[in-house]
Design brief:
The chain is built from 13 helices and twelve strands. It has 317 residues and is α/β, with parallel strands linked by helices.
Length: 317
């Protein structure tokens, strides 16, 4: 079972602290839990939080010494880091553990020197501070999460969900990631390059959103949908559709549609033995060559190699 150590750095953000357990505890492979999540900190016991809640963390940093993945969650301490925590993170990185941070947890990784020479992100409010305090880091303020080698950093709060779903997908594929997203009643896996929601969303016109239209599209991915088709279903102009789509999803309608089609193709490659031409058709991508280009761009593997990879993972599970 994949061991995950969640490191709580006081004062800890309680929302971010809860995210890894929420996501990873819902993942099963061959009917068995795929992950074991434990929370640890420099001094076990009561840990101060950024809010008014009491947080009790039962384990010490020895959990990080044996974990396959170590995740540092959001903290109110950006200007310093506990030496014991820094040392534990350096040991984990040195032995090849996957390291991740949610929100301001990126500052803890930076204090440990793990982000030197890397691209990284954090909550957009603190991205400039991260770059100024640690000049060797290249901040990415407008994305949900960034993976640079074995280090993954995410933006604030709910972007931690996207990061955890990304890790599940990397380990067990799109089917597993989208299944746990549905169980947690959160959005399916979003691409890391999607913009953070820096501006406050505009009020929905007439008290409606485009959620029904997005659900309608997901049932018709195999069809040759156009912007006009989406606008007609939403009963708005193409211009209004595009503007509201960006407000609600952070992407243009066509970017969102392509992402959903690639996700459907990945699920079909993982869960079926359908010919590639059929996968391309059912996902709405069209041709085998288009399927090949999009899957390689997203995963680094050809469709056949991607299918083989996850067939082997299921066989060894």
């Amino acid at each position: 079972m994949h061991q995950i150590a969640v490191v709580a750095v006081p004062p800890v953000g309680t929302f971010e602290l809860a995210i890894p357990d929420l996501i990873f505890s819902g993942v099963e492979v061959a009917g068995r839990p795929a992950y074991e999540v434990s929370t640890c900190t420099g001094e076990p016991g009561r840990v101060t939080s950024t809010g008014g809640l009491d947080v009790f963390v039962p384990h010490g940093l020895e959990r990080a010494d044996t974990a396959d993945t170590v995740i540092v969650t959001g903290t109110g301490a950006r200007d310093h880091a506990d030496p014991a925590t820094v040392a534990a993170l350096r040991r984990a990185a040195a032995r090849g553990a996957r390291i991740a941070s949610i929100c301001t947890g990126a500052f803890v990784l930076a204090h440990a020197g793990l982000l030197d020479g890397r691209r990284a992100t954090t909550h957009w409010r603190y991205a400039t501070e991260l770059g100024e305090r640690f000049p060797s880091i290249t901040p990415q303020p407008d994305v949900l999460f960034v993976q640079d080698g074995g280090i993954v950093t995410s933006a604030g709060l709910a972007a931690g969900i996207d990061l955890c779903l990304h890790l599940v997908r990397a380990d067990h594929g799109a089917v597993a990631a989208n299944t746990v997203a549905r169980l947690a009643v959160v959005a399916p896996v979003r691409p890391g390059g999607q913009a953070q929601f820096i501006s406050a969303p505009l009020p929905a016109e007439n008290g409606t959103t485009l959620a029904d239209t997005r659900a309608w599209v997901l049932r018709r991915l195999a069809e040759p949908l156009t912007l006009a088709d989406l606008a007609t279903h939403a009963r708005v102009s193409v211009r209004t559709l595009t503007r509201r789509f960006r407000t609600e999803t952070g992407e243009s309608p066509l970017q969102w549609l392509l992402h959903q089609r690639i996700e459907r193709a990945r699920e079909l490659l993982e869960a079926t033995d359908l010919p590639l031409a059929r996968v391309a058709h059912l996902s709405g991508i069209g041709s085998i060559e288009s399927l090949r280009q999009h899957v390689i761009r997203r995963t680094g593997l050809t469709p056949s190699a991607y299918r083989t990879s996850f067939t082997h993972r299921r066989s060894s599970a």
